[in-house]
């Protein structure tokens, strides 16, 4: 008999979870509360660890077809245009940059038809020793397992982890945009109090993000394009050009939050995944990648273990230390790269670092996050 799961949330993490379950022979119903399926946001990059996970999901080739190599982590600049470190493509690991919607579509296309239900908001979850039930409007769905991939403001986390603190504002805000400018090299410009990131993405476009400090969440401006252009008006090209070339409707303004560490990602037959479990700041480029890793590790545990409880215990044991350490590191990096007081010391340290040592640190196996190897997804063990 085919084993059944419910995945709450149809973003990148939820679709990756459903695809991983499909790879091990399970069937999944994905519940997405939005009336239409799609991925909000602008761009992102995926590092070697996430690309290995996409290989286990069977979609690395498709992902590479819609991604663009970027050396942003190797090209560090100052606002006046000078380089602190410069990538050499021959010996620097390229990340793969995407429009979020393009990677989302790759995952969606790999799922069986009919697995995703839109306009399906989950309002309750309850369970017993043998199954878990989800209330969705007037409908109740029952399965052996629920995977909650419903984001940083997860309904499932609120229902089953009522004592968990809400998302925490990190004192930073960001403007994101997509411009129709082709063939820009990836780069990161470090200024006092903020940074500007550029990634080339598919179809002759560029993704950019300006991250800076904010005294409180919710501060908004009448014209985001004017505001962000003013903040980086004296920074080197193509930064002003990128903002000018971005239509107003393609500029997104977000406040940056993360989650305090949870004591467990598992509640009975319910597992939190992705931002619902460990939302993190974007400063290590690992948010979506850690969600994809979660999906592969969860499916591998389900395939190897007879009992759901044993599989979820293994998932929690493997994923919590890694994802929470990554979130802590991202939080620390974010404070450092947006600190006015630390800016001069950080710039001096980067400038004095020998280029070969810098490139070694951003090689495919140069840091523990990127060195991660996924488990192999295989056919599941028979149910207990």
CATH level 1 class label of the domain at 4-69 and 98-166 and 259-338: Alpha Beta
Helix content: 25-40%
Globally, the shape reads globular
Radius of gyration from the alpha-carbon trace, in angstroms: 21 Å
Going across the major beta sheet, what is the strand order? 6-5-14-15-16-13-17
Q: Unreliable stretches, pLDDT < 50, 5 or more residues? A: none
CATH architecture of the domain at 4-69 and 98-166 and 259-338: 3-Layer(bba) Sandwich
Q: Which structural class should the secondary elements be placed in?
A: alpha/beta
Largest sheet, in brief, is: 7 strands, mixed
Report mean pLDDT, rounded to a whole number.
94
Report the count of strand segments: 19
Say what the CATH topology of the domain at 4-69 and 98-166 and 259-338 is. FAD/NAD(P)-binding domain
Content of β-strand = 15-25%
CATH superfamily membership of the domain at 4-69 and 98-166 and 259-338:
FAD/NAD(P)-binding domain
Oligomeric assembly = single chain
Number of DSSP helical runs: 13
How far apart the termini lie comes to 12 Å
InterPro entries: FAD-bd, FAD-dep_Monooxygenase_BioMet, FAD/NAD-bd_sf
Keywords: Monooxygenase, Oxidoreductase
Protein name: 2-polyprenyl-6-methoxyphenol hydroxylase
Pfam families: FAD_binding_3 (PF01494)
